[in-house]
Amino acid sequence: MERMPGWADALLVPLISLVIAFAISSGVILAIGENPWEAMKLMVTGALGSSYGWGYTLYYATNFIFTGLAVAVAFHASLFNIGGEGQATLGGLGVALACLFVPWPHWSLALIGAAAMGAAFGALWAAVPAWLQARRGSHIVITTIMFNFIAASLLNYLLVNVLRPTGSMDPATGRFPDTTNLPGLGNVLGAVGIPFSKSTPANVSLFIALAACVVVWALIWRTRLGYEIRAFGKSEKAAVYAGISPVRITMIAMLISGALAGLMAINNVMGEAERLVLNSVEGAGFIGIAVALMGRSHPFGVLLAALLFGFLYQGGAELALWTSIPRELITVIQALVILFTGALDNMVRQPVEALFLRARKGAK
C-alpha cells in the first residue's frame, strides 16, 4: 500500500517545500531591512506581469527543460548525471560548427542540422563517463563532474586558438549567418494574432523543448526501452535476471541524457547569442539537477519546475535591478528551493506520509 497518494507526492510535498523555502527567504529579506511582500510582488510583476517578463522567464525555462529532462532520464536508470553542464557546453560547440560551416538556405533546415549536431556532441561527451561506469565501475558522479571541467577547458582552447575570428580579442566565434537566425517567440505568436514582446531572447526552441517533454514521456512510459531503463533503475539484479544488459542500458540512458543536455544549445547559442561564447551554459546544467529532483523525474513535473526556476531567474534579475537587495540573495533563494526540494525532501515527506497514514487509520 502506498503511504500517500500519487498527487500528494507529485504536488503537495514540493508545494510545502516551496512554501518553507520562500518563508525562510522572506525572513532573510526582512533581516536586511527590505519588505518581503513588496519584494515578492516585484518578482512576480517582473517575471510574469508583462510579455517582456514572460519572454525572459520562458527563455530561461527552455534551458532548464532540456537539462532537467537530461538528468531525469539518467535518474530513471539510477544514474546521477552531474555532467549536464559539460554536455551542454559541447552541444554548443556542435551547434556552432553546424551554423558556421554549413551553408543553410533557411533557418528551419539550420535548426534541424544544429539540433542534430548539438545532440550528437552532448551524447558523445556523455558516452565516455557512461562507458567508464558500465565497463570499469568508475562512479558516474565523479567522471561527469570531471568532464565538466574538461569541456570548459576544451572550449576555452578552441575559442581562443581555433574559432576566434582573425583580429578579434573576444574569445568567441563570429556571428552566425542570417539564414541560421531563429524566429523569436514574439514573431511566432504575432503571426497568429497573439501580441508578445519581440525584444526578448525567447525563440522557437521553446517548442522543441515542449516536444522533448512529450517524447521523453513516451519513451520512458510507453516503450520497451523505457521499461528496461526503469526496471534497471529500480533493481539492477532483477533487471539482469530478466535478461536486461546493464552495459547496454547504462550506455543508452547516458547517451539520451547527454543528447538532451546538448540540445539546450539551440536555445542559448543559436537562438539568443547567435554565436558561441565562453560560459554560454551559465550553470543551467546544474540547475537541471534541481529541476529533475523537484519534478520527480517526470516530464510534466520537469516542465513545471523549469518554469519555477525561470521565474526565479527573471524575477531575481528584476529584484536586483529595482531594489537594494543584492543579486546574491536570489542565489540564496534558489539554493533554499533546491535544498528543501532535494536534499531535505524527507523532512517534508515523512510528516506528510504520517498524516495520510493517520487519516487512513481513522477512516477504518
Overview of the molecule:
- It is built from 16 helices and no strands.
- It is mostly helical.
Poorly predicted spans: none
The main pleated sheet reads as: none
Oligomer: single chain
- SSE series: HHHHHHHHHHHHHHHH
Helical content, roughly?
Answer: over 70%
Number of helices: 16
Care to count the β-strands?
0
Write the layout of secondary structure elements.
Elements: H1 6-31, H2 36-48, H3 51-76, H4 84-101, H5 107-136, H6 140-161, H7 185-191, H8 205-222, H9 224-234, H10 236-241, H11 246-263, H12 265-273, H13 284-294, H14 299-322, H15 327-343, H16 345-363
Summarize the structure.
The protein is an all-alpha fold.
Which terms would index this structure?
mainly alpha, 16 helices, 0% strand
